[in-house]
Amino acid sequence: MSYIETSSGKWEIIIGLEVHAQVISESKLFSSASTKFGTAPNENVAYLDAAIPGSLPVINSFCIDQAIKTGLGLNGTINLTSFFDRKNYFYADLPQGYQITQFYHPLVSGGYVEIETDYGEVKKVNLDHIHIEQDAGKSIHDQSPIRSFIDLNRSGIGLMEIVTKPDMRSAVEVAIFLRKLRSILRYLKTCDGNMDEGSMRADLNVSVHRPGTDYGTRAEVKNVNSIKFLTIAVNFEVERQIGILESGKKVKQETRLFDNSTGRTIAMRSKEDAQDYRYFPEPDLPPLRLEQSRIDAIRESIPELPDAKSKRLQRDYNIPYYDACLIASEKEVADFYEKALCDVEPDENLAKILSSWMTGELFALLNRYNKTIVESKISPEHMKELMILIKTEVISGKIAKDILELMWETQESPLAIVEGRDWRQITSEDEIRKYVREVLVNHNDKVVEYKNGKDKLFGFFVGQVMKITQGKANPQILNEILKRLLDT
Amino acid sequence: MHGLSLYKIKKGLLKKDFTSIELTEYFLKRIEKYSHLNAFITVCSDLALQSAKQSDKKIAEGTAGELEGIPIALKDLFLTKGIRTTAGSKMLEGFIPPYESTVSEKLLEAGAVFLGKTNMDEFAMGSANITSYYGSVINPWSKDKKLVPGGSSGGSAAAVAGGLCAAATGSDTGGSVRQPASFSGIVGLKPTYGRCSRYGMVAFASSLDQAGPMTKTVRDAAIFLKVIAGYDEKDSTSSRESVPNFEAFMEKPVKGLRVGIPKEYRINGMSEEVMRFWEKGAKLLKDAGAEIIDVSLPYTKYALPTYYIIAPAEASSNLSRYDGVRYGLRVNGVSLNEMYENTRAEGFGDEVKRRILVGTYVLSAGYYDAHYVKALKVQKLIRQDFVQAFEKVDVLLTPTTPTSAFAFGEEPSDPITMYLNDVFTVTVNIAGLPGISVPIGLDSQERPIGLQLIAPHFREELLIQAGSALEEAADFPILKEIAS
Description:
The complex is a heterodimer of chains A (488) and B (484).
Chain A: E1 4-6, E2 9-22, H1 61-73, E3 77-78, E4 81-82, E5 85-88, E6 98-101, E7 108-109, E8 112-116, E9 122-134, E10 138-140, E11 149-151, E12 158-164, H2 171-188, E13 200-209, E14 219-224, H3 227-246, E15 254-259, E16 264-270, E17 280-281, E18 288-289, H4 292-300, H5 306-317, H6 321-328, H7 331-341, H8 348-369, H9 380-391, H10 397-410, H11 414-420, H12 429-442, H13 444-451, H14 457-468, H15 475-487
Parallel strand pairs in A: 14-15
Antiparallel strand pairs in A: 1-2, 2-12, 2-13, 3-7, 4-18, 5-6, 5-17, 7-9, 8-9, 9-12, 10-11, 13-14, 15-16
Helix pairs in contact in A: 1-4, 2-3, 5-6, 6-8, 7-9, 8-9, 9-10, 12-14, 12-15, 14-15
Chain B: H1 6-14, H2 20-33, E1 40-43, H3 45-61, E2 71-75, H4 102-109, E3 113-118, H5 154-161, E4 167-172, H6 178-184, E5 187-190, E6 210-215, H7 218-228, E7 258-262, H8 272-287, E8 291-295, H9 303-318, H10 336-347, H11 350-363, H12 369-392, E9 395-399, H13 415-419, H14 426-430, E10 435-442, E11 448-454, H15 460-474
Parallel strand pairs in B: 2-3, 2-4, 7-8, 7-9
Antiparallel strand pairs in B: 1-3, 4-6, 5-6, 5-10, 9-11, 10-11
Helix pairs in contact in B: 2-3, 5-6, 7-15, 9-11, 9-12
C-alpha cells in the first residue's frame, strides 16, 4: 500500500475524480450549433445555446452514441432507459439558468479503468457512473475593469462526466489514471483529451486519514486543467489537510478552487453555503430509451483498446511489457509499429529491435521536434529498413543513430544514406585484423603497458581502430580479434 | 361581417364575396374602434395588409392555403420573427424574436393574415387577464359592469368574442384557453399534450403547456387545429400521432356516444346557474341520442394542489433565463447578483414572483420529496382516474368554470380562491388530455357560460363530434353590441 509518513506517523490518501470529457461531435448536445474550437466569440450559438425564449433541446443522437461507446470502452453498463434533469443555478455564462444533465438516472452505471501503479501493482479504478450534460459558456473578466464579457461558443457542448469511486491513493496514481483514461478515450475517438483546450477537465475529491480508521472529511477541488496541476493540487491538499489534522483541528467539507499561478487551493464555499441546485426532471425531453441492438452495434465498432493491444503485442512479438504499454498507449504509435512490421517474416528479434528503437530513439526525436507520431518525418517503411540493416549487421548501432538523424533531416531511405556515405559496417575478420595489427604496431609502447596490467588501455585500442575505420568496424568482431591478438 | 365564423369567411373569400384586403381593413378598424378592450398588445397593420394582398393574389391564382387571407390574432407568447413578443411582461421589453414559432409558422404557411399579438396574463400566469404589464383586458360581454375576459389567453378571447379577428391562438397550461373561452362565450380547444409543437412558445410549464385554437365555432376549432397540429422535430415532446381531418367529425351524430358525468365535479362554490347549464348540456346531448353515464374521478380534488406544485416548479426554472444578460429588460447593479435582483424585481409582476417563489420552494432540498415527487405520484393517480373512466365512456362533460365571468373589483382577493377558477380545467392538463369549452348559454346576468368536454389522448375528433352537437342544440347567441 502507498502511505505517506510524517513525523506524526502514517497517513492514507483517498482520491476520487470527476472528469469532464468533451464529446467529439460536429454539433452540440442539444442544438445544431458547431463545436469548432477557436472561432470568434459567440459565433457558434444556436437559439437554445443563448436560451432565446421558446427554444427547445433536441438530443444529438451522435453524442449519445459517443457516450455509449465510452461507457462500453470503460467496461460500464449502459442503461436502456436514462433521464435528463435540470440543475438550476444563476450565472452569467449559463443562459438557461440551468444545465441539462443526468442527475437521478445516468446513461452509464459502473465501469472501471485498469492501471499499473508506480509500485508495480495492477489495480482497477472503479467508476461510479458516466452521465451526459451540457457545458456552460465562458465568462471573460479581464477585458474591462467594470464589465464582464460572455462567450457562448462552449454553451451547450456535450460533456461526459466520468465519476470514479474514491479508488486512488496518490497524486501519481491520479496522473496514471488520467493518462490511461485519456488514452482509451482517444482510441475510442469520443474525446480528444486536450486538457489545454479545456476538452478534458477534472474536479478532485481528496481526503486523508490514519490507516485502519474511517475515511477523512473530503475537500472538493475544482477547475484543475492539466495532469501536472492535478498532481500539484493533490499534493497541496494532502499537505494542507495533514497540517490541519496534526494541529488537532478538523478538515472542513468544502469546495476549493485551484489557482494555477500559485499552485494552491483556495476555499470557495463550505458545505453550509453549498448551492441548492433544485434538480428535477427535464420536462422538455422525454426519457432516453435505447434499443439493445443499437448498443450491440456500437460495441461491434469499438477498436482494440490499449490493454488488449498491449497484451497482444507482447504475445505476438514477444516484446517487453514496458515497450508494449508505451507503444499501445497511443493508437497511432501502435499503428506505426505494426505497419513497420508488416510484410516481413515473423521475426522476434526484429520486433524487439524496433520496439526498443521506437520507444528510445524515435520518441526522443519526436520530443525534440515536438511532433506527434503522425507528423514523424520518418516513415514506418524507412524505420523497418533501418531495423533490418541493424539486425543483419550491415551497420552498427552507433552509426544507426546517426542514420536516424539523417533520415529525419533528409527523408532519405537508410539504405541510400548508408550507400551514399559508405557507412556499411566492416564485418570481414581479415580486414579488421589488418587494422588491429596496424594499431598495435603503431602503439607498441601502449601494448607493453597493457601487458604489464593496464587493462584500461583496451578501450584505447578499440578507439584507434574505430578512428581508422570511421566507426564502421563491427564492435563484436573487433573486440574478439583485439583480445586474441593482445593475449598472445 | 364580424359575426362571421372562420369557416364562413373562408367560403366568402373563395367565392370572392370580399377580398382579404377588405377583411383585414375591416378588422383593423374594429381593433381601433374597440381599443378600450385592450385585447391587443401589438397590432401589425402594415404587415397584415401586405400579407392580405399576397393572399388575394393566391386566391385569384387558385393556390390558396387552408387559411388563405383569413385575419387572425396570436397570443403574445408565440414568437413571431421580427414582431415584438412580450408574454405580457415588462421583462421582455424590446425583445424582437429572431425566429418564428412552429405554430405561427404553420399558420403563415396556410396563408393566415396576422393582425397582431394579443394581450395575456404575464407569462400566462393568471385566470382573469389582470396580471399583464400591458394592462387588463375587458370582456366584450361587459354591460354596466366591466367583466374580466378570463385568462391567461384573455386578449385572444376578447378579440374573438368582440369580432376583432376571425380566430386566435391561445395557450393552455391549466385552463388558459378553455377558461377565457367560457368567460367570453367562444370555443376554446386545448389539444392533447404533444399534439402541437411548443417550439417558439414562451414557456410557462413545459410539461403542461399546449397551444390551442380560440374560435367562434366548433367547426372553426376543427379547421384551425388541423393546421397547427402535428409532429415537429424541433420539439422532442411533440407526438408522431397522425392528424385526422377533425372537421369531418362535425357531421358525425352523437347517437350511442357515451358521455360521462363525473360526480366529483359538483363542488362547493359552484354557482347554481353553472350547475343548471351542466344539467342542460347533458340533457341536450341525451336528446341528440347520446348515452349519459355517471362516472367517478376520485382524485379530482388533488388536481389543483398538484397543478400548483408542478406548474410553478417548472416555471421557476423556465423563467431563470430572464436575467438581464442577453435580451429584454436589464436593470444594472454593482455586481452580477445585484443586476439579477434589480432586473427580476422590476421585470416580473407579483403573480409571476409568487409562482417563482412557490416553484423554487417546492424544488428545494428537503422539500422536493414531500412536494414535487409527491405531486408527480398524484399526477399518475389522476391519469389513472381518467384511463379508468374512459373504459366506460367516450367523453366526459363538465362545467368549464365554477362561475361565469366576474367583474373587475369583484375578483377573489386571495390567490387561492382565484386559483379555484381552474379547478375543472387543470385536471385535463395534469392528465395531458384534450379538452374543449363550448358556450352553452347566458346566465341571468347575461354572462356567458361554457361546458367542457374531455376526451382520451389524441381523440380530439370526439371533442369536435360531441362539441358540435352541443353547440347546435345550445344555439348560443351572437354578441350584438360591445359596450364602450
